[in-house]
Amino acid sequence: MSATTMTNQQRKKVESLFVYLFLILASIATILPLFWMISTSLKSGDIIFEIPPKWIPETFEWENYKRAVTDIPFFLYFKNTVIITGFRMFAEVFVSALVAYGFARFNFPGKNFWFVILLSTIMLPGEITMIPVFIMFSEIGWINTFKPLIVPSFFGGQAVFIFLLRQFFMSIPKELEESAVMDGANRLQIFYKIFLPLSKPALITIGLFSFQGSWNDLLGPLMYLNDSSKFTLQLGLAMFNGMTKVEWGPLMAASLLVLLPTIVIFFSMQKHFVEGITVTGIKG
Asked: What is the pTM of this model?
């Protein structure tokens, strides 16, 4: 083995070592806030801001978790959040898939123009439409109901979701569609018998995005919900911010409980999520 070959192998090992070291440090920096949240949720109020900080307290303050579910009607807010998130996620996934199917497989005048217009709405800040949309919902009497948070999801989906699904649908061989047409299937049957089953990774991917966006939504419920019995978990977390102080221990405990469903769903669907992100960029 020549000296040049040895040098190349050593250089590759050093490069791999630096890459792994960078990934390890980046991972630590990413999960550090989560560790701090867990640590704070197990501390009493008098040691949370000690310098130097104690990552592992001498005694665990489990009372914080009890207060997290008793100081606010946690399970009522959990039920409200599940209702809103479930309907929104179903609507955004199904409607986005339906619209994406039209852009991927139908030919109609100005298709590319309308698709560009659709994508341009991604650059439109939500603050621009916030006031007129609120006035519209107020005029039709939907304020203090779940309708403003759910019903709009059934009319169009999100542009990013439509784009991702269109990319995936375009990667499905047209031969499958042509065979189904020869067997007598119509467009709707092709959509839900061929495209939807084959699009499982992509559907799960946008479902996770939709779940996260709806589950963590604070602004929407804050705008439209006035009755505390209809509040969501994000509004419930805000109740730990008092006029004079913040209950950091119970707040971190409640935040961790709110975060758990997202963590569980992500890790249980991680394989499909990675696959969906990979395959949605196959065709342009």
From this structure: 0.83
